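for the writeup, i need someone to sanity check this before i put it in the appendix. the sequnce is what the collaborator sent (i think, or maybe the updated version? ugh). structure was predicted straight from it, no edits. if anything looks off just tell me and ill rerun, i have time this weekend
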Amino acid sequence: MPYRRLPNTDQARIRALKAVVAKADVQNLYDLAVSLKTLTEARNFLTRFEAAQSYYLQCFERQSQAGHKHQANVKMARLYVSHFIQVLNLAVIRSEVRVAHKAYYGLPGDSTNVPDLSTETALVEWGRKIIDGEAKRTSQGGIPIYNPTIAKVRVHYDIFTDSYDRQKNLQALTARSLESLSAMRTTADELILDIWNQVEKKFEDVSPNEKRLDLCRDYGLIYYYRTGEKRKEEVNK
């Protein structure tokens, strides 16, 4: 016997609900295989579920599109912050900047390694330290670092932090919209299961079996054949 399987994606759930609603649009309501109460629930829920899915997809698309530009901003900010630290270390080696002044930037005096900037959180932290440190050192009469200047670093850092904040907001919107959509899936599955049970109950005495299955399929039920099963049925015909 072929077996049915409930939808396991949001799009498949929507198709299943649309199928019974579409059937009701062309069928006499009193001849429907599902109750009017269930049909009303399906119509109302379908509208809300489609809207929730559409909103999630819109949020995800906006996040994705903004993400490409954001990554370019991350790359430039990381390049400038890293380059500035390297130039600062060279200035220390040339005795143009005191070793002790590296503390203004949060950098150890006994190392010329560039801090790990692989994460955006680290880039936010170190970019701010470098900008504040350079301001403090130069305010005490220190010679500014050039190529790149801190002004150039700040430009790319500010662009990065702006897009960083936007991306965080977009990610939060996407997460909330997905949470709302996910919360509706149990209701969708329960409603579809109820519809399918009612449909199969309506046609349980119809024969032959393929005719019964076709009547159920008109309401969106999906049946799967086990390996070799369909061929055997066709041979038996």
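The chain has a mean pLDDT of 94. The radius of gyration is 32 Å.
thx in advance!!
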